[in-house]
Design a protein that fits this description.
homodimer, alpha/beta, 6-stranded parallel beta sheet, 6-stranded mixed beta sheet, 14 helices, DNA-binding
Chain lengths: 341, 341
DNA sequence: CTGTTAGCGCGTTCAC
DNA sequence: GTGAACGCGCTAACAG
């Protein structure tokens, strides 16, 4: 099958290429009549404009990139859903890149995007990211970028988050309210602000409740699940076992489950557990897991919306949105009413 | 910052554009020396070739599309992981499109891909897809396409699946082995072969065990979760309640959980439940859910591998791969050993 | 209102 | 071994 392009159409209609082009782009310079004709033939021959020629000429790719630490994770999967919804609305395409929580991959991926392949970037940082030089390069290229959830420290940049300090505070307070006095915190791996903020919320709640802050109760986790599991095991085996655990991410909550099972400890009878989680089903399957659920779909949507705002009107300052997390308590029925959360 | 392109490099080196181009493409016509120089300057100026110009010229996009029914679903998320791994290996980019189980969206998306934006397509069909005309158009354009999991009926097409008949059979047999005599099947929505095959496996297992086939025990589900939930509720409320349920997808298993909770029925004491599921955590959180776990990561990887095979050597016949599902039984420790499954 | 011309940046002839 | 010239398909500027 021969490619059908503007030239084909122009020849068949005895028009010039540019007239056809304008007609298809609904230019005001073209008669309604000619437009009709052109459109009809285009339809008939199933003409599809070549996106690369168009991009080359217009310096626009109609494509955005989404850079994620991982995808087998309900939070990010839902965020993509929200992003995709907005992208479709704007007629944009979505490229996915996974860092697998690896700083080096993150750098490599940002390098890939320096060539104009995409018009904008949505990004959630890898937990191993310390240094932000690679992000500066993107900004130098005037590539609009919006961070979500795991955001850059840079103030001059757009971001969408939930209030991690508040969430950490509320999670801890919830455990206190349940009668916990010795509360451990499984801290977010790496050096991102999100980890510090959640911990700071935890510390503040301890303070406000006149509970001692025992450094041994803060576990600095990493990306090695086995190591984390063992550390939690040790924590639970100590003769001064915590009566409550606040996990900063879902995976650590699952490790805690496994460790408790190993030690024949009951959740929540022996240890109460609260965790960030967007696993819709977690509550359904095991109501003892109180969750702090982030509005992942809305975060994705908001981040994408901010990005497209920047894409439309060029000079737009950094904007920030902070959405609300929801604490879903034991036996709450809230989980059933959530749609795309 | 000015764009740095071949022209820039050529001028700075007193070479012609074409020489620089050849040098960067490591052509045999160019001296090792000049290559060095060119590469050095390219590095220094951080030259990034314009992908659109390149694609326009080469008729290659270095991009594949992945079309999925949904993404907030562990199976598909893991499949993307596998796909991405292979794509990165080949230096390819991955576009994501979601049908949201909607046939019309699926058609619209396939139309989008008719213009050469991607070199190949990986696809899992929407459950509402009946008609495959839109897929024919893709094939007419010689766009390589590989289906996975929810595959086209067409024999002339590449696909990667697990053996759905066998899985359905094994699931049912497992319930029989647990002592179930009245086994219900929550059938996969829509008209795809995957639903029929799982049901046929179920029916064959009943037959082989001399169990009656009661049509009322087969629930034809759809994409409306509330309706499914109510149907399951009715099923469980009947005076002739099933003692085992085989759910064809995870969501239906979750609906079953909710329905049982509503009726104060215990799983597995009152009703045994088995379901397809790639929710790694399901077993951990609730061991009573016996799962049939598909090797999602490997399915994605295999599908992508097949696709790239087709991309390399043009004329390649349809290939088919059938991977093994794993039955993860109650209290099995298998779940902990799985990596990217 | 329509057509002509001139690139977008790159890769591939074909001369030299 | 290197360079000049052309074209991939489309759009923008300018004529008419």
């Amino acid at each position: 099958m021969e490619p059908v392009n503007l030239k084909t159409l122009a020849e068949r209609l005895n028009l010039s290429i540019s007239t056809v082009s304008k007609a298809l782009n609904d230019s005001y310079e073209i008669t309604a009549e000619t437009k009709k004709k052109v459109l009809a033939l285009a339809q008939e021959l199933n003409y599809q404009p070549n996106p690369f020629a168009s991009s080359l000429r217009r310096h626009k790719s109609k494509t955005i990139a989404v850079i994620l630490p991982e995808i087998a994770n309900n939070f990010f999967a839902l965020a993509i859903n929200g992003i995709e919804a907005v992208a479709v609305e704007h007629g944009y395409h979505v490229l996915i890149y996974l860092t697998h929580e690896d700083y080096n991959r993150e750098v490599a991926i940002t390098q890939l995007l320096l060539n104009g392949r995409v018009d904008g970037v949505l990004m959630s940082l890898a937990s191993t990211t310390e240094n932000q030089n690679h992000l500066l390069e993107l900004r130098k290229k005037d590539l609009p970028i919006v961070f979500f959830d795991r955001v850059s420290e840079d103030d001059a940049v757009s971001k969408v988050t939930t209030d991690d300090f508040e969430s950490g505070y509320n999670a801890t307070q919830h455990l206190v309210d349940q009668g916990c006095r010795r509360i451990a915190h499984l801290m977010f791996p790496g050096h991102l602000s999100i980890g510090r903020k959640r911990r700071d919320g935890y510390l503040q709640a301890l303070l406000d409740n006149n509970l001692p802050n025992d450094p041994e109760l803060i576990l600095s986790c990493n990306n090695n699940s086995t190591q984390n599991y063992n550390a939690i095991l040790d924590l639970l085996k100590s003769n001064n076992r915590p009566d409550g655990i606040f996990a900063s991410i879902e995976k650590l909550a699952l490790n805690t489950y496994a460790a408790c099972a190993e030690l024949n400890l009951s959740i929540p009878d022996d240890v109460k557990l609260i965790s960030f989680s967007n696993l819709e089903t977690a509550q359904l399957l095991h109501p003892s897991l109180t969750t702090i659920t982030q509005p992942a779909y809305d975060i994705g949507k908001e981040a994408a919306t901010l990005l497209f705002k920047a894409l439309k009107r060029k000079p737009v300052g950094p904007e920030t949105a902070v959405l609300k997390s929801v604490l879903i308590k034991r036996n709450s029925t809230a989980i059933r009413s959530t749609g795309n959360v």
